[in-house]
Amino acid sequence: xxxxxxxxxxxxxxxxxxxxxxxxxxxxxxxxxxxxxxxxxxxxxxxxxxxxxxxxxxxxxxxxxxxxxxxxxxxxxxxxxxxxxxxxxxxxxxxxxxxxxxxxxxxxxxxxxxxxxxxxxxxxxxxxxxxxxxxxxxxxxxxxxxxxxxxxxxxxxxxxxxxxxxxxxxxxxxxxxxxxxxxxxxxxxxxxxxxxxxxxxxxxxxxxxxxxxxxxxxxxxxxxxxxxxxxxxxxxxxxxxxxxxxxxxxxxxxxxxxxxxxxxxxxxxxxxxxxxxxxxxxxxxxxxxxxxxxxxxxxxxxxxxxxxxxxxxxxxxxxxxxxxxxxxxxxxxxxxxxxxxxxxxxxxxxxxxxxxxxxxxxxxxxxxxxxxxxxxxxxxxxxxxxxxxxxxxxxxxxxxxxxxxxxxxxxxxxxxxxxxxxxxxxxxxxxxxxxxxxxxxxxxxxxx
Length: 448
Description:
Elements: E1 5-8, E2 10-15, E3 28-30, E4 35-39, E5 44-48, E6 51-53, H1 59-72, E7 79-84, H2 91-95, H3 107-121, H4 132-142, E8 156-165, E9 168-171, E10 182-185, E11 189-192, E12 198-199, H5 203-214, E13 219-220, E14 249-250, E15 253-263, E16 268-278, H6 285-288, H7 293-316, H8 329-333, E17 343-350, H9 357-370, E18 374-377, E19 381-383, H10 384-402, H11 409-447
Parallel strand pairs: 2-6, 2-17, 7-16, 7-17
Antiparallel strand pairs: 1-18, 3-4, 4-5, 8-9, 8-12, 8-15, 10-11, 13-14, 15-16, 16-19
């Protein structure tokens, strides 16, 4: 990895337009491009963020704000964009977008397009490899279309979609796989073990896989989203229509991973991951009027969001020596994003109405705290030869650790534990190296 550089979490606030049902006035007023005045019968305060986006802001405005994070993924950096707020505050609209109108596309489809353009522009700078299936798909697609992700230069692009529902991690590309665990890998950092990673060969294919996953997300109707119409997400410019029906409130945290792996001709390896997170609604249970199963879901949502708040507090209070990432599946998944190695942006989505003043105030306060998080950002890079040398070194250490046959029972137990840890470590590195060596073999075979 490269040497880390300090980067503060970027926090912006976005206020959606007032709906026809919200008749009790407004609770905010923009004072400047970065300051908003909040006012309700109970309290008033000014809040400063990196940027304030009022009702007149466009989807393009929001994307331009996070565009540097998306683009950095192409250079081996991890990036995260989170949408936080109560149900109905515009989180899903901000991330995915709305019906038919190209100008209403959200951050996710715009990020896909940005990665597509970036990968195409890299072809003169790098030599890319791809798996056999991806290579063949790219060759077939490139004969028919000029707008594919993989043109003359090839790169491994994969997508995963998971949700955290009732403190269980569920693979939305394989819904039966509903109790996944979080692990930390040698080079990729925090990952969800055994989550489906689908290789994609074009922009359209990436969108289709992503939509397949998001359409499996858990939703339910609550008072906070009563009257909302089902939304359709599409990319007309691709001449395809991908439908996403969200008739109710999202009852889970949804995470879309877009992963870019590059192998250069000189042996350098790069791995970038973009994490796009649509958090579940942060409203109080009494406000949502939920009952039964939906009420129990709400309790677990609030528990995970409370754990998120505790992590934010621990990272910003200047006193905590321990950050409680393991208190929730959500905070564990976001460990690289909060105080870790990723470039991170947080979008606080708010209602402008006095009807939701308490929830808006809570969201703004959360955003102010999160703005103090400092990440140690670094590119995920490695040299193939150094990794091979590390495999040999680890193999020697593993042999020494497992050859212990004498000494106390405690010493043997410690040696066995060390051996297991070394085995896991060496296997992770060896698999990573073997993957890229296989890519080279496939590339050379196909090009002969």
